[in-house]
Design brief:
Blueprint lengths: L6 H8 L2 H11 L2 E2 L1 H6 L14 E2 L4 E2 L1 E3 L6 E3 L5 H10 L10 E5 L18 H4 L5 E5 L3 H6 L1 H15 L9 H8 L23 E2 L3 H20 L6 H10 L5
């Protein structure tokens, strides 16, 4: 039987980690710290695998399988994380072809056997400090290469000041504190908190500010007026975590 190298090892044989990171550095789009501070969490009512409802949270949204004809309750993949990042960058989904929303913090599992409890948590799923917009082909780098993940997290916590003191990320933060491969780390990225503003950060604009204000107004309205399926109790906790005033 023919043998083949691990795919990541084969990639490293033809492209150095520094070369890989230069692709990420040159193309990534990030939410500005001012936008993050304005509204860190955009859709607290949603999380990965959360269920969808329609008619203002008053009726289950079902999907019918073409293969079986059975209807199942539609669940969240990455829709509202994607929407949060799009709005926080002042973009429209239809006008950003071949770009993907990538979460920075999550459960690292190369076998994809573990549930990703980080993005299943409403506090972090639509947090715009937990996402980066990348050309779709580069999404695989952030999903599978541990060193790429580590450098994105160092970058993110230095830009947004989060998550330094959160117990959910304690083990990962300790590992990041001992990072030594600065030769591969992009030159334009901050190595210490608030050191500099790197390439790819999209400034807070009037359009983005209006989107944030509308989103917060909708959250406040839905807490009072949405249908019976709106997860009021589950929304209040994440808002309190981020100190978002109601």
């Amino acid at each position: 039987m023919a043998e083949i190298l691990d795919g990541l090892e084969a990639l490293r044989n033809v492209m150095s980690l520094r070369e890989t990171m230069s692709l990420v550095e040159g193309t990534a789009r990030w939410v500005a710290p001012e936008t993050f501070n304005l509204l860190p969490l955009w859709f607290p009512e949603h999380s990965r695998r959360g269920l969808f409802y329609k008619e203002n949270w008053s009726k289950r949204q079902m999907n019918k399988s073409r293969a079986t004809g059975h209807s199942v309750h539609k669940s969240e993949g990455n829709v509202h994380a994607n929407k949060a990042l799009t709005l926080a960058l002042g973009l429209k989904s239809k006008l950003r072809p071949n770009w993907s929303c990538c979460h920075i913090w999550g459960i690292d599992d190369p076998s994809y056997q573990l549930s990703n409890s980080i993005v299943m948590d409403r506090r972090f799923f639509s947090c715009v400090g937990n996402m980066v917009l990348l050309p779709t082909p580069l999404k695989a780098f952030t999903d599978t290469i541990p060193d790429v993940k580590a450098m994105l997290r160092i970058w993110g916590r230095n830009l947004y000041g989060w998550p330094r003191e959160d117990d959910n990320f304690l083990v990962t933060n300790i590992a990041l504190d001992s990072w030594t491969d600065w030769e591969s780390y992009p030159e334009s990225w901050p190595r210490t908190p608030h050191e500099k503003l790197p390439h790819g950060v999209v400034e807070l604009s009037p359009t983005i500010r209006v989107s944030a204000e509308k989103r917060l107004a909708t959250i406040r309205h839905d807490l009072k007026h949405a249908g019976s399926f709106y997860p009021r109790d589950d929304v209040k906790g994440p808002l309190a975590y981020w100190k978002i005033e109601l």
